[in-house]
Amino acid sequence: MLGAGARPQLIQRKAGLRPTPEDRRVPACPEVPPPVEENVARIVYASQSLIADSVYAQMERIRSSALRHNQPLGVSTALLHQSGWFLQWKEGPGEVLRALMERVARDARHHALRIVHASRGPRLLDGPWSMAIVQCDDAPEAFAQRVALLRRRHEDGCQDEPPAVWRQLSTPLGHPGAERQADPSAFTRVLVCAAQGAGSFELVRWLARRHGQPLVHRRLAGACDLDVATDYVDFPAGERLARVIAMARRGLGVPLARAFLPDYARVLLLLSGEADADLRLVRRVAAACAGRPQAPALLGVGACADIHAPLAQVAHGFGLAYRGVLADSAEPSAAWNAAAPFIH
Q1: 165, 180, 287, 319: most buried by Cβ count inside 10 Å?
Q2: Domain 187-342, CATH homologous superfamily name and number
Q3: Residue ranges of region Disordered (predicted)?
């Protein structure tokens, strides 16, 4: 999964430790996604891990093999390891996926493979490889319970889109609204990125403390040695529920992260006041949104009114809505309280 050669550091961080949200490595892959193609076959399956040694090392071997064999065949893959389970989402030509699944079923690194989604539709994973390791207080039995529920829904003909299936399986049962992840009207989802520093992660940690909810730590990697942190918290927000996700800036280069962009109501930009850094952030978000059927509106938070006009002009040039909010982006409570009326 993660390639041979230079090793991206997919670190399973313990709760309470601060993630390093920004990598200092320069990604080898371009950030602009390729053009969207015609409909492809899409399959999502879960299986129990049989790996006794390092999960990371095995995922690295799988990535290397997938990039060598599957990428030339037009197959895109996202892989999750959580609570002793694997979750894979694959897209590509139907005949190729059928042959690939026969080989996957024989792989000795997992067992009890259960298909929870199969469809044809637009390709949502616009790069060959994504992977994630999640650390949370979620027992293997709880993950199995979610798999069984999704399997029954699949067998009954209920068909959620792959991102909704992914969210339902990866959200711990104890989280607010875990059972409502498939309902698009139940959640307001907000992505937070900071132009500089780790402000997005500080804001999400503050929200977790404020609402008394657990913080979920994740690490993402793409095909080209990207390795980034992303944390999230779920909490009640009036009649709806909120999921607020802190994303390292380079995380927008991971295909799995880009696939979820249409689900976000807003992308909250914590601006630095330095023109170049703020413009780079807006352009990075715009590149990640390119080719999506719909894109979230941008909500820029900064203390100086003058910074918003040029950012709005750039965002509008990419077809994105932009609203500026005056607040100190370095202070989580001030930033969130100023932005919240334009989110919910």
Answers
A1: 165
A2: P-loop containing nucleotide triphosphate hydrolases (3.40.50.300)
A3: 1-26
